[in-house]
Design brief:
Largest sheet: 6 strands, mixed
Order of helices and strands: HHHEEHEEHEEEHEHEHHEEEEE
Shape: elongated
CATH topology of the largest domain: Muramoyl-pentapeptide Carboxypeptidase, domain 2
Number of helices: 9
Structural class: alpha+beta
Number of domains: 3
């Protein structure tokens, strides 16, 4: 047992000193010595192998790190070069939603080319086509005095008769049809209005079956005692007004717009006429309802007035809100018509009218022109 213990000591000696324990011990000691000797051998080999493997791993890791550092360096240098070449200010960058990025804190000045007019959104007339003749249109020059002539002139109370031009007139006796009568043979009327009057009276006769209407006056209506048309209006001098009366067995009576004769008041706008002083418009016209006094304004203007239930004064005020680029649009017989206002200049006034298609230009007697266009 003591030997065994010494063997254990021999084992310890073998473990500590390698092969000397194997040469002096018994078989058991040898076993211990073998075990003790083998353990350092295996440990030495494993440790050496592991140490060599770790060395190789360290060298590989350093290569990867170096490669990554070089890549970062190249990327940084290349990015700086690209940024310097394609550099843009903050004001030039637009995000994906279409909004401008915030402006830089410093002030930037934009060079404006010479001979240009800075854009001012408050100035209505300055558009991208300012100074450029619009394709399909030409300029029509209107003299300063032309503002007092046309189918839409508003000749009110107190207007000097000498300032009113009758325009192109004809003797109604020479052109009238058999569907109405005249008070006298000297009555004259605007030539365009005369043609429209014949057409209207013919259709009225077709509707009523009787020719019971008489043109009592136009430019010079008798308004004295017993007259069926007891008022005289300054605008009669335009040559565009018609005062009508009704023929009965008891003589001529004032036209009141009722019964079968009411067809005239209801349909006159289709022929270019309007009841000049309609019911309920005294605050605009200055007159109570006068059914027997018609005014020729042209089919298009009459259509615009009828569509909006306007008297002449209302139409002239309304159309001032429209201009060439944004006209008032309405329809007659399913066809688009356009109307706009042009303020009169001190001298001649240039008005844009179509090269092809129709148009009418009328002064309002005061300060501008009304242009009506159809294609």
């Amino acid at each position: 047992m003591g030997t065994g213990y010494n063997g254990a000591s021999g084992y310890n000696s073998g473990y500590n000193y390698g092969y000397s324990g194997r040469s002096s011990g018994s078989s058991t000691h040898g076993s211990y010595a073998y075990t003790g000797a083998a353990a350092p051998g295996r440990q030495g080999a494993g440790a050496a192998g592991r140490t060599g493997s770790r060395s190789r791993h360290r060298r590989g890791d350093k290569s990867i790190v170096n490669a990554m550092l070089w890549a970062l360096y190249i990327f940084a240098v290349g990015g700086a070069i690209v940024s310097s070449v394609f550099k843009k200010s903050t004001a030039e960058i637009i995000d994906n939603h279409g909004h401008f990025a915030s402006m830089p804190s410093y002030n930037t000045e934009v060079a404006v080319p010479q001979n240009t007019i800075p854009y001012d959104p408050s100035r209505r007339e300055e558009t991208i086509t300012s100074g450029v003749l619009d394709i399909g249109y030409r300029r029509l020059g209107m003299a300063a005095g032309a503002v007092k002539s046309g189918l839409l002139v508003d000749v009110g109370k107190g207007t000097p008769p000498g300032d009113i031009a009758a325009g192109d007139t004809v003797r109604l006796k020479a052109v009238m049809n058999s569907c109405y009568a005249l008070k006298n043979e000297d009555i004259v009327l605007n030539s365009e209005a005369a043609e429209a009057l014949n057409e209207m009276m013919e259709d009225y006769y077709s509707y009523s079956g009787v020719a019971d209407l008489v043109v009592y006056g136009t430019t010079d209506t008798y308004a004295g005692e017993g007259s069926p048309c007891p008022m005289y209006f300054t605008e009669d001098l335009t040559g565009c007004t018609v005062d009508i009366a009704v023929i009965t067995d008891n003589g001529m009576l004032s036209y009141n717009g009722l019964d079968s004769q009411g067809w005239i008041s209801q349909h006159c706008a289709e022929y270019g006429f309007v009841v000049r002083f309609p019911e309920g418009k005294k605050k605009y016209t200055g007159y109570d309802y006068v059914p027997w006094h018609l005014r020729y304004v042209g089919r298009l203007n009459a259509a615009a007035m009828s569509e909006n239930n306007y008297c002449l004064e209302e139409l002239l005020s309304f159309v001032k809100g429209y201009y060439f680029e944004a006209p008032y649009v309405f329809y007659l017989n399913g066809t688009e018509r356009r109307m706009y206002y042009v303020s009169a200049a001190d001298a001649d006034t240039d008005i844009k009218v179509p090269n092809d298609g129709g148009y009418e230009v009328s002064g309002n007697y005061k300060d501008g022109f009304i242009v009506t266009i159809w294609d």
